[in-house]
């Protein structure tokens, strides 16, 4: 079921500085649309670090150090685990764009779809790292259209 996208699609970064926005403004605005988690993968060490919202989306305990990948795999739908791991491997070896959609089994037993994207960043003296974000693809949150007056 997991979906991966291995083609590189270069989209130039919008010039948000020209209208007075900073990087932190863009991150804050992005998080108003969805709960967004951010992550970093050290290719040489194989360590994955995630923000508190990353852990919240996976419904695991947050850790300041490297995340336990086994805990993440345990939350994934069993049919998606191999494809997600293969996507990480392909991205790390090709230094391409990482893009994956997979299912998480919630603590309540329902499924939610998680979209993960990442970009390769070279790091002097090592193989580099991936930095990315993830969000729930179809969040079940009430919106203003459901408010009864």
Question: How does this model look, in words?
Answer:
It contains 4 helices and 6 strands; from the N terminus they run E-H-E-E-H-H-H-E-E-E. 26% of the residues lie in helices and 27% in strands. It has helices at residues 23-33, 52-58, 69-75, 81-94; strands at 3-4, 36-42, 47-50, 98-105, 111-121, 129-136. Residues 3-8 have low confidence and may be disordered. It has a 6-stranded antiparallel sheet. It starts with a strand and ends in a 13-residue tail after the last strand. The chain has 149 residues and is an alpha+beta fold.
Topology:
Layout: E1 3-4, H1 23-33, E2 36-42, E3 47-50, H2 52-58, H3 69-75, H4 81-94, E4 98-105, E5 111-121, E6 129-136
Antiparallel strand pairs: 1-4, 2-3, 2-6, 4-5, 5-6
Q: Can you tell me the residue ranges where pLDDT is under 50 for at least 5 consecutive residues?
A: 3-8
Distance between the termini: 40 Å
Mean pLDDT: 83
Question: Biggest β-sheet: count, sense, barrel?
Answer: 6 strands, antiparallel
Mass-distribution shape: globular
List keywords for this structure.
6 strands, alpha+beta, six-stranded antiparallel sheet, 149 residues, 26% helix
Summary of the model, kept short:
By secondary structure, the chain is of the alpha+beta class.
């Amino acid at each position: 079921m997991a979906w991966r996208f291995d083609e590189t699609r270069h989209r130039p970064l919008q010039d948000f500085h020209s209208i007075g926005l900073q990087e932190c403004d863009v991150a804050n605005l992005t998080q108003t649309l969805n709960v967004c988690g951010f992550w970093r993968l050290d290719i040489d060490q194989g360590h994955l670090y995630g923000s508190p919202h990353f852990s919240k989306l996976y419904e695991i305990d947050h850790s300041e150090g490297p995340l336990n990948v086994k805990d993440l795999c345990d939350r994934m739908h069993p049919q998606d685990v191999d494809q997600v791991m293969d996507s990480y491997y392909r991205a790390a070896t090709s230094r391409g764009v990482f893009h994956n959609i997979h299912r998480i089994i919630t603590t309540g037993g329902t499924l939610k779809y998680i979209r993960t994207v990442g970009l390769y960043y070279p790091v002097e003296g090592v193989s580099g790292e991936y930095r990315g974000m993830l969000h729930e693809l179809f969040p079940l949150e009430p919106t203003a259209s459901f408010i009864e007056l």
